[in-house]
Design goal:
The chain is α/β, with parallel strands linked by helices. 53% of the residues lie in helices and 9% in strands. The chain contains 18 helices and seven strands. Helix 15 packs antiparallel against helix 16 and helix 15 crosses helix 17. It is globular and about 70 Å long. The N terminus is likely disordered.
């Protein structure tokens, strides 16, 4: 009996070794990401971008003293500087390099074959989508941020009565060539709103009551619902920021379970809904993916903010979420380091979980290989119609 167990144990170890190599080298589809900085940041800007923070912590303190900062130094310093450095030394070494050089080194090294970019926020501070594609040496697609479209319409000074049709026209133009939509309604009005489709009269009344500040930063629940319903007409995936972000998001109103009425409606219309990031709601999002045929999720932002502990976010998502509905994203914005070390953390976390299950005998190597390929790229290829997806299934 001992010899039989040893034989199967050796087979599982060999299978896990093969699986580790596959995860390390497989191409990824980053299903939600942003472009890179046009200019190098100062130290305060660097730390703000690293942790999506509001500002400095105080004298003698640094945002790099975090899981995200330690992961950045661990993965990025050997590639950029030739050797690993301490987190507190990273920015000083970084200043010796040009921003273009950092991007051209780290972006291709992420092993991402396809990037799906949300260009809808602070785009003037970032390189163009075309330049990003050159530096990353990969395929690039875009999604349309709904709030950006609506705010551009309102900035034109149109009357409230003109808004519904003006938004429809602007959205029709903006969505051409895109692979989906993105909404940050979690930041603006939360998910615990009335998700029934509003009438044009309802929308007009809401727009007429908007303050000047709200016209440039839409936070009205009726207008937000209207934007999402208009996007649903195109039957393209709609991405929802869920959970953690900067301090503008109120987690008390960001529970994705409150999206249930909208998910019921969108399922009937066969519109895919993608739940992004999801911390601390990974289990709730997994539950929704299990119970609705049109819902997908990732743990993007949680991976790089949690650093080595990001494995826990991925583990929670894999409790209930069907493996055909789990995606990869980085949500990197600005720093090329985020694009790179988010991918490294994802690979390491997936390796830790899946290889552990194979070594325990809980998963077969064949099942594991199929699942990691699906999560890394094939699910996103099927969902967005990008890249090469010969065997993705329906």
């Amino acid at each position: 009996m001992g010899q039989v167990e040893a034989m199967y144990g050796n087979q599982r170890e060999e299978a896990a070794k093969m699986l580790r190599n596959r995860i390390e080298t497989m191409p990824l589809v980053d299903n939600h990401v942003h472009s890179c900085l046009l200019q190098s940041p100062d130290e305060l800007g660097f730390e703000r971008l690293l942790c999506e923070s509001a500002g400095p912590l105080g004298n003698g303190q640094s945002r790099v003293d975090s899981q995200a900062g330690f992961a950045l130094a661990r993965y990025c310093s050997p590639l950029l500087f030739g050797q690993r450095c301490d987190a507190r030394d990273y920015f000083l070494e970084r200043q010796k390099l040009k921003e273009r050089q950092i991007g051209e080194t780290l972006l291709p090294a992420a092993g991402v074959s396809t990037w799906i970019i949300d260009p809808g926020w602070a785009a003037t501070n970032l390189i163009s989508v075309q330049e990003f594609a050159l530096r990353a040496q990969g395929e690039v697609h875009t999604v349309v941020r709904l709030e950006a479209v609506a705010e551009s319409v309102l900035a034109a000074g149109l009357s409230a009565g003109s808004f519904p049709e003006a938004f429809r026209s602007a959205l029709s133009q903006a969505q051409q060539g895109s692979v989906g939509f993105k909404t940050i309604c979690a930041y603006r009005c939360g998910f615990d709103i009335d998700w029934r489709p509003p009438s044009d009269d309802d929308v007009i009344r809401s727009v007429s009551r908007l303050s000047p500040a709200s016209r440039s930063r839409i936070d009205d629940a009726i207008v937000c619902s209207f934007m999402v319903h208009e996007a649903m007409r195109y039957r393209k995936p709609i991405q929802f920021h869920v959970g953690l972000g900067d301090r503008d998001v109120d987690l008390r109103h960001s529970d994705p379970v409150d999206l249930r009425p909208l998910l019921v409606e969108s399922e009937q219309l066969d519109v895919p809904m993608v739940l992004l990031h999801c911390w601390p709601f990974e289990r709730e999002c997994g539950y929704l993916c299990q119970n609705f045929t049109n819902v997908y999720m990732d743990v993007g932002l949680a991976m790089y903010l949690c650093g080595v502990q990001g494995v826990d976010a991925l583990r929670r998502s894999m409790e209930l979420c069907p493996f055909s509905r789990l995606l990869y994203s980085s949500d990197a914005w600005g720093l090329p380091e985020q694009h790179y070390f988010a991918a490294k953390l994802f690979r390491d976390s997936l390796t830790s979980l899946v290889c552990g299950w194979v070594e325990q005998g809980a998963w077969t190597a064949g099942d594991a290989l199929r699942v990691v390929d699906a999560i890394g790229s094939k699910n996103a290829q099927r969902l967005y119609g990008v890249g090469s997806c010969t065997h993705c299934g329906s």
